[in-house]
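Colleagues,

Please find the record for the three-part complex below.
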Amino acid sequence: MLLLLEQCLNGLQFGLLLFLLAAGLTLVFGIMDLVNLAHGSLYMLGAYFAATFVAWTDSFIAGAVLALAATLVVGMAVEVVALRRLYGRDHLDHVLGTFGLILFFNELVRLIWGPAGLSLPLPMWLIYPVEILPGFFYPTYRIAIIVTALVVALFLYVLVMRTRLGMLIRAGASNREMTGALGVNINLLYTLVFGLGAALAGLAGLMQAPILTVQIGMGENILILAFVVIIIGGIGSIRGAFIAAILVGLIDTIGRAFLPDLLRLILTSRGASTVAPALSSMMIYLLMAIVLVLRPEGLFPVSSK
Amino acid sequence: MIALLTPRNVVVAFLLLLLAAVPIYAAWTGNAFLVTLFTRIIILGMAATTLNLILGYGGMVSFGHAVYLGIGGYAVGILAYEGVTTGFVQWPLAILVSALFALIVGALSLRTRGVYFIMITLAFAQLLYYFGVGLDRYGADDGLSIRQRSQFAGLINLSDRTLFYYLCLALLLVTIYLTWRLVNSRFGMVIQGSRSNDRRMRAIGFPTFRYRLTAFVIAGAICGLAGALLANHTGFISPATMHWTRSGDLIVMVVLGGMASSFGPLIGALVLLSLEEALPIVIRAAASPLFGDAAVRIAEYWQIVLGPLFLLVVLFARGGIDGLLAGARRD
Amino acid sequence: MTDARVDTLLEIDGLTKRFGGVIASDAISLGVRKGELHAIIGPNGAGKTTLIGQLAGEIAPDAGRISFEGGDVTTLPTYRRSQIGLARSFQITSLFLDFTALDNVALAVQAHAGHSFHFWRSARGEADLRVPARAALARVGLAERSDVLVSNLSHGEHRQLEIAMALATTPRMLLLDEPMAGMGPEESARMVKTLRELKRELTILLIEHDMEAVFALADRITVLVYGRIIASGSPEAIRANAEVRQAYLGEQEQAHG
C-alpha cells in the first residue's frame, strides 16, 4: 500500500514536471500558433545552466535562479532573432525551422560543455527524507518539486485568468490583428510569452537535473512526452495540459512500477522482464494514439482558432 | 538542345555521372571508403525519395518515416538470425511488413491534420522504437549483427562491394523514375491536389483519404526495401535507426534538397552526408597547415552551422537546392 | 411553400444549426425548383455561409433534413454530394494555387471520370480530361488564360475559375457562394452574363450581396436574417416587402444614395 502511495507521489511529481514543460509549449502554440520543437532544447539549457551556476556559486538556490534567468534570456533572444519570422507560416515550416534549432543547440552545448554529460548534486538540506506519514519517508527534493510546480501552476492560472497581461494573452490568441490595432505591442507581447514558456522549460530542466543526468539530447526524449500531453489535453489549453500531464505522469510511473508484476501473472518471469520496460514506454504513445483516434481535437480543445 | 542545359539539368547530369564513376575512381585510387560512403548516400537518398512522395508532393509531414528503414532492416536481421538468409524471402518480407505497418499507421493518422498528424506519426515511430528496444532476443538496445548479406542463390553476390553499389544505384534510379511517373499520373494529381487544397478536392468529388493512404503505403513499402539494403550495407540493425530524430534527418534531406522535385531528395542526402562525413576531413586537411590543432576542433564542431543553415533554407530558400537551381520558385 | 415534389430539386426542411449560444440556422425550410435561379440574400451574419456549409456537407446540422432529387443527403459526405451532381463554389477563393488554371479544372473533371488509381499514364496528356476542362474554361471566358498559374491570375479571374471548376463536375445544381465577391463593375457584368447563360441549363442556388445582379438574375428570392427566413417570393414581391426593406434593402438603398 505504501509502495502504491510512493509511486503515486512519484507519478504526481513527474506529471507536474511534464506540466511545466507542456504549459510553455501549449502557451506558445495556443497564442502564437507556433510549433516549437526546440522547446526541449530550452529544457536542456536550463539543466546545463543550473549545473554550471550551482557549481560556481556553491548554492543550489542561487544557481537555480541564475539558470532560470539565463534560460529566459536565451529564450527571448531566440524568439527575436530566429522564430519571429516563422509566425503565420505553415506548421511544417515551424517544425522544420525549430528542428534546425535543435541541431544547433545540441552542437552548441557540445561545443561549450563537451560531449560528456554533467551532474548536479543536491545540497544536504534537500537530501534528507521527510516523514509524511508515520513510518513513510519521501525524499525532500521530490516534495520540493511538487510544491514548486503547484505554486507555478497557481501563478499561471492567476496570470492568465486574472491579470491584464493574461487578458492580452488570451485576446492575442483569438484575434491578433485587433489586439494589435488596439495599440498593444504584439511583438513585445509575443516575446514575453515565449520568454515565459522558455522559463517554464528551463525550470523543468533544472529541477529534473539532479534526478536524471544532464546530457545532450535530453530535451528530445521528454519533448515528445510534452507534446503527447498537450495533444491529449488539447492544444492551447493550460487546464487541459495540467490534467493530461498528471494523467500521463501517473500512468507512466505506476505502469512502469507495476507492469512487470502484472505481466508476471500471465507470462514467464523472463518474458515479463523483457517485455515490461518496452511496454511501459509504449503505453503513453498508445494512449495518445487512442485519444487522437477518438477525439482528434484532444480532451479539452480550445474552441475558436 | 541548348534549352536543355538549364543549371538544374546540368547539375543532375553531373551528379549521375559522378555516382556512376565512384566505384571506378575508388578502384583506381584504392580508396574503398568512397564506395562505402556513397552506397550509404544512395540508400538514404532512396529513402528520402520515398519520403518526398508523401511529404513533398503529398504534404503529409511524417515524422516516423525512418521506422520503415528499421522494419526492412529487422526483417533481414531477424530472418538471418533465425537461419533464413535468402534474399528472396527477406526482401519481399521487408516490403510487405513495411506496407502493412504503413497501412495501420496511415489508416489511424490520416484522419488528423497539421501538427496532430505530425505528432501521431511521431508517436507511432516511438512505439516501434521502444518495441525494438524490448526485442531482447534480437539485441534490444544494442542491436543485431547481420553476419551474412542476403543470398540470392548465386544470381548476384552482394558481398562484392562494387556490385552491391551498382545494385543500390539501380534501385535508386528506378525509385526516382517510378516516383516521377506516379506524381504525374491521375493518382499523383490527386495527391498533389490534396496537398494544395484538401478541402477543395473533397468539394469537387474526390474521396481523398483512400488515395493519401495508398501513397502512404507505397512510400513505406519502398522505404522498407531501402531498409533491407541499409542492413545489408552496414551489417547491423538497431532500434536507433527508427528514432524520431532519424526521421528528422530524412526530412532535412528532402527539404534541403528540394521538396516536390525528382532529384531533390538525392541531392539533399548527398549534401547532408557529405557534410557530415567529408567536411570534417576536408576542413582538417585544409586548415591544419594554417591553424594546427585548432583546425581539428573546428572540423569537429562545424555541425553547429548546419542547424542555422537549415533554418535559413526553411525561411528563405523554401524550394531547397533544387529550387535555387530551377530559379524563382512559386511557393 | 413547396410546389409539386417532382419539380423541386433541392428540398431543405427545418434546418437548424447552433454554435454555442448563437443560432446560425433557425429551422430553415425552402425548396429550389428545377431550372430556376433561386437567390438568397441577407445582411452579414445572417447565416448564409453556414447554410451553404450544411448543404455542401461540411457542417453537420443539429436538426432538419436536406433532400436532393428526392433522396436524403443530410448526412452524405462532401465528396459524395459532388458526385451526385450538387456542385459548390467558394466565397473565399479556394483553388489550387500552385497549378495552372487548366490543371485546376482538369482536376475537377478527373473527379468525375471514374477512379484515380491510375499510376502510370501522365494525367496532363489525357484528352479525356483536358478537352472538357478547356470547354469549361471557355464557358466562363478564361480560354486564353488556361496555362497561367492560378497564383498569377487576378481576383476576378479567380472567381470565374471557381465557376469553371464547379461546372467541370457536370452538376445538376450549383451552389454559388457570393461569386461576385470583391469584383468591380466590369467583372460583375461579365459574371452576370455568364450566370445568365448557365441559368438555361442548370438549377442554381445563388448567395449574393450584389443587389443589381440578384434582381437581374433571380427567379425567386429568399431573405435570411439572423438565420431565419423572413420572406421568400418573386423579385417584385421581395422588393415591395416592407419588412425586407427595413431589414436589408433599406441599408442598401441608403448606401447607393
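Strands of chain B lie at 144-145, 236-237.

Comments are welcome before we finalize the supplementary table.
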